[in-house]
Each structure stands twice: as C-alpha cells, then as structure tokens.
Design brief:
globular, two-stranded antiparallel sheet, 9% strand, mainly alpha, 88 residues, 6 helices, single chain
Length: 88
C-alpha cells in the first residue's frame, strides 16, 4: 500500500486522504496513518499554499476537498527518497 500511495503521489493522481482511502479500499483514518508514516520516513513532504497564489488551485481536480487554502499545507509531493522508491 505504501508503494501505491507513493506511485499515486508521483503521478499527481492524489486529491486527498479520502481519495487514497477510496482507491485502496481502506478507511480514511488508516490512509492518514500511512501518509503520516511516509512523511516521518522522508518519502513525502508537504506543499505550501504559495502555489495557489498563482491561480493553480482553480485548475485543480480536487475541487477544494484538500483544505489547501484553509490550512496552508494539506497536499504533498515526493521527496527524492520517495522518487527513488517508485523508479526502482
């Protein structure tokens, strides 16, 4: 499951924790635990809301479900370490 989450994140296919939970057929709580684990291990990092200033949010498929504008950091991206995992 961890590799699947990294792959989805690397391909830009993730719109939020509920999206991951649905795709992997797991609870939102378990999906959040997996995401937190990937953060702690250095495979994912948070993305700040700076990119939303340029208008990227209006083109996003998540339709505001990510909470990006409210919380400032809800989305994530692969670190170099995470990228290496899915490339191998």
């Amino acid at each position: 499951m961890l590799i699947s989450i990294l792959t989805m994140a690397g391909e830009g296919q993730v719109t939020g924790i509920d999206d991951i939970a649905c795709r992997l057929h797991i609870s939102d709580v378990f999906a959040e635990q997996l995401i937190r684990h990937l953060f702690r291990c250095g495979y994912l990092r948070g993305v700040t809301a700076i990119s939303s200033v340029s208008g990227n949010c209006k083109n996003c498929l998540s339709d505001g479900k990510c909470g990006f504008r409210k919380n400032g950091i809800k989305m994530w991206e692969l670190t170099d370490k995470g990228r290496k995992v899915i490339e191998n």
